[in-house]
């Protein structure tokens, strides 16, 4: 009996080893992507108790690698109205263009035009500040082959700010910032994207605020059947360095109040 068991075990080990070789050569389901970068410049006109109307304009560039391999840009603007100090509504719109960084001369792969409606609720404690943002988006796409598409999306973001050297955020304040945002697609995948950010900033004066951070963005697709084969859900995740500069316009007659340095994206 002992002489029969030895060949069987050797054969099983050989089969396992031969099966492991091709599996290790396959492309992983969730390949690791290189670090990228986001560069954001914003001009804001915040509302307040005296002047409830406000707005913003923003330009953004993204690169596939850190500060190189440029492939994406955003141009957007919006008009806001402060219902009260803790409740703001906004109507925004923008243009979003994606190119192949290896062949930018060929033009955009797609151009998206977007309209959105937004509600922001804020909570102020003695030190910690919380912001809840709810957004509904309408998105029109035109692709390089002249095909078009329309999509809608729901977004929710919770953003926390914590000033380090004083209780409120104002000129001369160092602060920490973190947020998590989920993206929901009515057509699926319902849970389309998750975006997690951690960073810090400094409000130089009444007008200028600088922020630096890291954002981890994960995209999800739907499981599908293709040619009789089941393709599981694939998660595509990427980490980016974020550098944001915001310039706030101030009204001379406005009463000074704490303004949260929220990113518009």
UniProtKB/TrEMBL annotation:
Keywords: Signal. Residues 1-25 form the signal peptide. Pfam families: DUF2490. It comes from the Bacteria. This is DUF2490 domain-containing protein.
């Amino acid at each position: 009996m002992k002489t029969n068991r030895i060949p069987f075990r050797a054969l099983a080990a050989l089969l396992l080893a031969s099966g492991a070789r091709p599996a290790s050569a396959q492309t992983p389901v969730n390949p690791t992507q290189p670090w990228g970068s986001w560069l954001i410049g914003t001009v804001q006109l915040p509302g307040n108790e005296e002047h409830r109307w406000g707005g913003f304009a923003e330009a953004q560039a993204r690169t596939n690698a850190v500060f190189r391999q440029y492939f994406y840009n955003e141009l957007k603007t919006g008009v806001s109205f402060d219902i009260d100090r803790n409740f703001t509504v906004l109507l925004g719109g923008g243009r979003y263009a994606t190119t192949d960084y290896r062949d930018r001369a060929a033009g955009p792969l797609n151009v998206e035009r977007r309209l959105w409606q937004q509600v922001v609720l804020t909570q102020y404690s003695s030190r910690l500040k919380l912001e809840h943002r709810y957004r509904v988006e309408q998105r029109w796409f035109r692709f390089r082959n002249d095909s078009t598409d329309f999509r809608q999306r729901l977004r929710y973001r919770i953003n926390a700010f914590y000033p380090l050297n004083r209780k409120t955020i104002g000129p001369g304040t160092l602060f920490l910032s973190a947020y998590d945002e989920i993206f929901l697609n009515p057509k699926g995948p319902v849970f389309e994207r998750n975006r997690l950010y951690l960073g810090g900033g400094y409000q130089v004066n009444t007008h200028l605020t600088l922020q630096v951070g890291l954002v981890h963005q994960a995209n999800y697709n739907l499981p599908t059947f293709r040619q009789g084969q089941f393709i599981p859900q694939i998660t595509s995740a990427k980490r980016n360095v974020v550098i944001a500069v915001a310039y706030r316009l101030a009204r001379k007659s406005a009463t000074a109040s704490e303004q949260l340095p929220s990113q518009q994206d």
